[in-house]
Amino acid sequence: MNKLTDTFLKLVRIDSPSGSEANVREFIISFLVKLGIDCSNIDQEGNLTVTIPGNSEHILFTAHMDTVEPGRGIKPCIKNDVIVSGGNTILGADNKVTIAALLVTLEKLIRVKNRHALEIIFTVREETDNGLNNYYFKNLKAKKAFIFDAEGNVGSLIIKAPYIDDFEVEIRGKQTHCSTPEKGKNALLKLFEIGCEINLGRISNDTLFNIGLIHGGTATNTVPDKIILKGDIRSFDKGEFLGGKDGFNKILDKIESKNGYNAKVDWIKYSDGYEHKKNSRYVKRLIEVYRMLGITLRHTSAQSGSDANIINSKGIKAYCLSYGAWNAHTTREYIAIDQLFKLQQIVEKIILKY
User: Fold this and answer.
1) pTM for the complete prediction?
2) CA torsion through residues 171, 174, 176, 180, sign
């Protein structure tokens, strides 16, 4: 089997849901140490930073090691030159195709005499609270970065990405037996009130609001005194983003003012939004690099975030590009083998020609 495909298949067989990336990190370290690359730079969050010295301006790459659930016990298989999972789990192409492409490219180029200077961060918890939020970026020398973490065939560049915050709400009432409901304060009723006032889904062309997790209650015969909601807000428009958060806070304040109930919300910053200029010299150069491989680079926007959001907010021009896979975060996730090879070629070409 080809080294690139084999490396990818080995990676997806390693369980690494967000927060449990250690075994993938050890695989990467084992692979790179054999090439003589120092892998001792691991921060408190678990991010692994690899530096390749060279005689050019530094370029930064990142790839996240974590996956979403269901991501345990993945059994990849190849059907008609397409890699899929067994059907009960995700495949984990997001983002292990990028890890595989980076590792194999480093193996090919590490002995090149005119070596190009690289910085690579293999990141943790990108799918949840983003492990790069506390990263010490001042140690990096690169002024531009490339992140292959956008769904779709190789050849798309995310020009615009949203501001994103997660939130957790706790609605509190008073517990009692269901035979004496008048003695309690049913937190579920307050959830219904919130539901009547909140717009869920697409609020506008720029803004989305979602509650993805709901938990509460202790028994079928008990009035629930606590309901927990978790979700996120995301928007291309910073004004709408801040306004949406403020509006949600005000709705919860109404609950606080009602006797016997309270509602607390914690906002968890995920990332700032960004927008690149289509005619910037960095983007034009990227278009030229893709053209060398006969690929037309398309501009698009994404309502999802990535490590690129964090890196752009730190003053480094970070470009999020498609990595070749489809149906991310589902059990129908797949990648055609030819897309995996195109991704590796792009990584190599960026290093050599950008």
Assistant:
1) 0.89
2) negative
Q: pLDDT category, 116, cuts 50, 70, 90?
A: confident
The encoded tokens of residue 3 equal 């080294």
Closest to 349 measured CA to CA, from 298, 292, 297: 292
Element housing 167 (H / E)? strand 163-172
Q: How confident is the model at residue 261 (pLDDT cuts 50, 70, 90)?
A: confident
Q: Which fold has domain 3-161+273-353?
A: Aminopeptidase (3.40.630)
CA–CA separation, 271 and 127 (whole Å):
12
Element (H, E) at 192: helix 187-197
Among 87, 86, 92, which Cα is nearest to 71's? 92
Name residues whose C-beta falls within 8 Å of residue 297's C-beta, 6 or more positions apart in sequence.
Answer: 155, 156, 157, 286, 287, 290, 291
Give the start-to-end residue ranges of the domains of the chain.
3-161+273-353, 163-271
Answer whether 140's CB lies under 8 Å from 119's CB. Answer: yes
Q: Which amino acid is at 160?
A: K
Residue listed under structure tokens 């990535």: 306
- What is the tally of helices (H) and strands (E) in the chain? 8, 19
For 130, the token pair is: 């983003």
Q: Is the peptide bond before 95 cis (omega within 30 degrees of 0)?
A: yes
Right CATH number for 163-271 from 3.20.20.70, 3.40.50.720, 3.40.50.970, 3.30.70.360? 3.30.70.360
d(CA 116, CA 150): 25
* Angstrom distances, CA of residue 65 to CA of 1, 39, 350, 354: 23, 15, 21, 25
